[in-house]
Amino acid sequence: MQKNHSAFCVMKIFYIAHLVSVHNVSLIPSDNKLTIREGSMKEVQCEVNRNAYPAPGFFWYVASIQIVNAFNTGYRTSVTITGNKVDNQKTLQCRATNNNNPPKTATTTLNIECKNILKLFYNLVHKHHRKYYNFFSLPR
After folding, report:
1. Would you put residue 68 in left (φ > 0), alpha (ψ -120 to 50) or beta?
2. CB 55 within 8 A of CB 98
3. What is the pLDDT of residues 40-90, one digit of tens each?
4. Which alpha helices (DSSP H) does the chain contain, by range?
5. Higher pLDDT, 118 or 106
6. Which residues contact 96 (CB under 8 A, 6 or more apart)?
7. Could you count the other beta carbons within 10 Å of the beta carbon of residue 57?
8. What is the pLDDT of residue 115?
9. Short-list 40, 43, 73, CA closest to 56
């Protein structure tokens, strides 16, 4: 019995011709520096070109440490970051790859607003405002 290899070859060529590598990776929101108030949470999404095939693998990093609380939905993934002052000025990075290619990367810098600093600033401004008001309210 003779095997028909021509159908296999056509199928293989068709499959290879439709591979599309990841070539565009972007973060949503696209802010660079990404501001998060200490203790609050913010969702960050990572998106690749929609025609990427097969679906890419996504990897999230803060500084050089891989974080694992990511959610993958085809060409987009998301992670929820909690503002922690030890992460201030660290890099958040999303890496995406498919087809055994080196990963493409999108990055942002975390800007964590510390509660104590905001409270101190508010108190200083409020205190200064009262002195200014009282100075001009004095009888002459």
Report:
1. alpha
2. yes
3. 999 999 999 999 999 898 999 999 999 965 566 689 999 999 999 999 999
4. 6-17, 115-137
5. 106
6. 22, 25, 46, 48, 52, 56, 57, 58, 59, 77, 103, 104, 105
7. 13
8. 77
9. 73
Q: Phi and psi for 7 in degrees, rounded to 5?
A: -65, -40
Q: Which domains does the chain have, with CATH numbers?
A: 12-137 (2.60.40.10)
Strands (E), 38-103: 41-48, 57-62, 65-67, 70-73, 76-82, 91-97
* Residues contacting residue 15 through CB under 8 Å, at least 6 positions apart: none
| Residue 18 confidence (pLDDT) above 60 | yes
**pTM, two decimal places:** 0.70
Between strands 34-37 and 104-113, the pairing is: parallel
Q: What six digits make up the tokens of 87?
A: 């992460």
Q: Rounded to whole angstroms, how far apart are CA atoms 43 and 51?
A: 24
When the pLDDT of each residue in the chain is averaged and rounded to a whole number, the result is 81
110: nearest Cα among 73, 77, 79: 79
